[in-house]
Amino acid sequence: MSNIYIGYHFTVHPLEIGSEILIAELGEKAFESFIETETGISAFVQKDLWDETILDDIQILSNPEFKIEYTFEEIEQVNWNEEWEKNFEPIDVDGKCHVRAPFHEKTNAEYDIVIEPKMSFGTGHHETTHMMIQHLLETDLVGKKTLDMGCGTAILAILAEMKGAQPIDAIDIDNWCYLNSIENAERNNCKHISVYEGDASLLIGKKYDVIIANINRNILLNDMQQYVACLNENGILFLSGFYTEDIPVISESCTSKGLTYVKQFERNNWVALKFIK
Known about the structure:
Strand content: 25-35%
Binding site for S-adenosyl-L-methionine: 129, 150, 172, 214
CATH superfamily of the largest domain: Vaccinia Virus protein VP39
Oligomer: single chain
Number of helices: 7
GO molecular function, one term: methyltransferase activity
Catalytic activity: L-lysyl-[protein] + 3 S-adenosyl-L-methionine = N(6),N(6),N(6)-trimethyl-L-lysyl-[protein] + 3 S-adenosyl-L-homocysteine + 3 H(+)
CATH architecture of the largest domain: 3-Layer(aba) Sandwich
Structural class: alpha/beta
Number of domains: 2
Distance between the termini: 46 Å
Strand order of the largest sheet: 10-9-8-11-12-14-13
Number of strands: 14
Order of helices and strands: EHEEEHEEEHEHEHEEHEHEE
GO cellular component, one term: ribosome
CATH class of the largest domain: Alpha Beta
Shape: globular
């Protein structure tokens, strides 16, 4: 594997929504690590997987609602830990859950989660992860069979185990997320998390008491029937990864399949919904 990377440095306006859309689109390419900056993001791709047309079909770059500029450079042997130590701040959710990197000091929070932060999604910085943590903090998970769908870094699966959930399946279609989830589960001494690489087709025949799906609107809508089919009676479905304006279509998809809306959190136009079967 090449140790030489191409690093792209983007300035993004408006910052928060633009950066998240940009990361999502770049993530579908060969970009494998992202660092959020004060003005946008930096994104890194192995030189072996790069060519000069790599940004040609990144749609947000031609979207008039966003102003995005960038430079790029060749970087030898990126030291990800060093990069993250410069940019990664520990997260505190409601004083109860602390999410930190190995190089941060431990606090006396009730739930102390340590992750190796190699990309932006799932570190707790993103609004959707923060709100899903809020949902889980106020939910009784003891003995509940749980699914973390689109697990990213497995932070939500790890918190679920800390709150007594078991057994837990964590699934992501991305190979890097699959490997990083295994690493983070081990780092937090989790014994009840099984990590799988794949999509909703892995759910056929499975049953869960709690399903956590923090992905994006289109995938959620596409896979909703499968989630509902997997959910036990009185089971809970947590959904995030979309905006306030997406609530009607997401809610309609859920209620038409027999789920009942319970509550939601909102944070900077992002939403996390709770439904019960």
